[in-house]
Amino acid sequence: MPATKNAATGKMSASNRVRTNIKAHTLAHVRRALLHFEFMPMLTEALGECDSVLDVGCGYSSPLGSIRKHFRSVGVDGHASSIEESRKAGIHDEYHNMDALDIDKRFAGKSLDCVMSMEIIEHMIRDGDLRHLRMIERIARKKVIAFTPNGFVPQEAYGENDWQVHKSGWTTREMEGFGYKVIGAR
Questions:
Q1: 0.85 cut: is pTM over it?
Q2: What is the spatial distance between Cα 5 and Cα 103, in angstroms, rounded to a whole number?
């Protein structure tokens, strides 16, 4: 059900905000389930040769929590509560609560084998997206794994996490244009 806004204030009503948040939260869980069943074998294989992984935007339930790790992993997220939940689950070996656009201030070029950016770029405006992609490419020694919806998918904040709002969308053709091998939806 689409949310409505008050024409005078431009704000969403509380009941519609709750419905939108529940819908966004449900969509996030559906995406995670699909990610788990369709993407996890590919992710496991892709990380096979890596000794270190930077998980940018790790959230509270990184896909790395579902695979057998043979590497050191570092989780980065801008939402402190997500970092704490992930820390309690023991998903990563190290954590940093920071903005994804500031990772180049903490991580040197070619400092980790793989940099994952799972469902992050759609939360940034287009200029930030490109900056983020270039940053993770500089930090990665061996490979970059980016996961994003194909095209723009609207999403509001949920779970008291304003970082969840979608601000942009990328198509398969655009990602291929940046030199990425695209696996999944076409």
A1: no
A2: 36
